[in-house]
Please model this.
Amino acid sequence: MSYKVIARKYRPQTFAEIVGQQHVTRTLANAIESNRVAHAYIFSGVRGVGKTTAARILAKALNCVNGPTAQPDGTCDSCREISAGTSLDVLEIDAASNRGIDQIRELREMVRYAPASSRYKVVILDEAHQLTDEASNALLKTLEEPPERVVFILATTRAEDLVETIKSRAQLFQFRSLTFQEISGQIEKIVKAENLKIDSGAVAVLARAAEGSLRDGLSLLEQAMAYAGDDISDAQVRELLGVVAESVLDDLVGAIAEQSSERALGLVHRLIADGQNLQHFCREAIRHFRNLLVARVCGADSELVAAPRDERPRLAEHAARFSEEDLTRFFNVLLETDDDLRRKPDPRLHLELGLLRLVNAQRLAPLEEILGDLRGDQRPAKSSQTPQGALPRATASAQSVSVSSSGAAAVRMAPSPETKLSVAPSTAPERPVSNVPVPASPPRIIARAAEDGASGLASAQLDAVKAMLQSSRLLSSFLEHATRCEIDAGEFRLFFHAENRTLTEMLPREAMERLRTAVQEVVGQPLRVCVKLDSGRAGMGRSSELRARFEEDPIVRAMLEKFGGQISRVKRPGEE
Model:
């Protein structure tokens, strides 16, 4: 007798032997027992999950000498002929190569005749979605009113490509992908029946590589048997399939936990030196971190973890080194890296960039945590209704935080339905900021250089700054145009008339840095230098009052201090 591959040798012969499709087999068995067999079925699902096998078993169940029965004996002439593929009354047609209207017309003529020796004539159309539109239309009338004792079974991997008129004339059964445990259990069962020895790690590699298809898993097992013989080790299967060793994934986890960029880049170098496929490694890393995330959320003993029992303690140990947020971030970074490896040139570069992102991902604080720090607690900011007349909490509706080309943070918020607040990047460089809450009523020093004759503390400090910067013609001329100055909430504010807008926008970054240094030396504490336009006290009106409310709010000041920005404009909806 000629050799049979494992997938054919251990092909299920009864409904009970089909793995993982109980929702389909139970329904078909009940329909047979109650004499409610439909004239057309659609079996849909990914490759290798039992669609054609279930169709053959249904044909045997209908034509068994003891039937129709949900448990065909498999020994009668009809069952043996169907199993061998020699039955005249069970037609298996590959719709991928017989997809035209002429072939469907021939099929319609064939099913008009009564079964030759069986109870039912069964037509199995494999890859039925490949039929042309003309062929599908030619099949419609036959599916709607088939001849007596004819059953159509359309097997497809893409049921969505079937025309709706065909789907409306048949019962649709969706075959699901098999789980890691189902595939690994079947592999272990067959290995035992074949008197083979195999490592549990090798079984896990084969089950993961099958990706939900039992037939693929059995084909890989046979390939491993041809490579390794009767004793299959984990290392041999990994070498055969190009799968990296678990120690490599452990090194990746260690590099991320220690935030070691050097170890991460060295890992890529080692993979290339060993001739490993970088995209295969990235996909293995995705599977590994998916297991870590599931172990962190559901526990290492969860059936959702795609790993054998002896590997789960190690997964639990690795998962405990990271938070759920960290693992989610790692998972997303790896998915993006896999997409880059697949679509873009130079895979080494993109893998190195991806691993460096993993190494530095833990240093990124969630926006909710930053906003919680600004409020003086560790809880994420939550929206709440604002009492009428009270200043809205800016943290309740923070929309985005970004970094400008100068390195300073930019924050845009919508504090309330009545107002809009824009926070622009500060020209001053970033500096460390503590999380100490800002006092509700900080000291406020205001001077009007034009109106008060340069009197008052702030005015005197402004004169001192001018004296320090006399050597700079640009800064001296710039300061002479200031209408007033103000020291408040960690800021040294210089106000200019609206007609001097161009002058304020042309000041170089280096000059602004020099001005900030002079202010710090005069005042004796680090202050941000802010340049603002002043249209005069008389014309400020309600906008100035609204701006003042925001400037005095401790949360807004804390946001400005945290992100190094300044309020550029406050406006109501509809204002240009």
The first helix runs from residue 6 to 9. The chain has four domains: 6-174, 180-241, 246-361, 421-571. The chain is about 45% helix and 15% strand. Residues 378-423, 425-456, 536-540 have pLDDT under 50 and may be disordered.
